[in-house]
Amino acid sequence: MSFALGLGACFVAMVLLALAQKKQAALVLAAPVSRSAQLAARAAAALLIVASLWSGVDGYGAGVGSVLFCAWLCAAAWIVALFLSWRRSRGTR
After folding, report:
1. What's the alpha-carbon Rg for the chain, to the nearest Å?
2. How many C-beta atoms surround the C-beta of residue 50 within 10 A?
3. pTM for this one?
4. 73 — phi, psi (to 5°)?
5. Is the distance from CB of 16 to CB of 42 less than 8 angstroms?
6. What are the pLDDT digits (tens) for 37-85?
7. Nearest CA to 24 among 45, 52, 9, 8?
8. Distance between CA atoms of 32 and 25, rounded to whole angstroms?
9. How far apart are CA 59 and CA 52, in angstroms?
10. What is the pLDDT of residues 2-46, one digit of tens each?
């Protein structure tokens, strides 16, 4: 359960970080994101990233957990980047 929880938290954090930026949010949402919503998304993403790191270290120990956390972060960022580039290639602004 810890593996899926950590990966899911990283994925949601990366989506929130993408929504906190103007260009990436325009690819996903039709309306622009307000400044307060951007700050809230960044804060929530930071909390989820810390929670994911804690989940990995608590479940697998410091050495394996921190390496697993880096893998979760890379995998989540890769998925979000592929989705955003796919949306951009379709001509969606």
Report:
1. 14
2. 12
3. 0.86
4. -65, -45
5. yes
6. 999 999 999 999 999 999 999 989 999 999 999 999 999 999 999 998 8
7. 45
8. 7
9. 10
10. 788 999 999 999 999 999 988 888 888 877 789 999 999 999 999
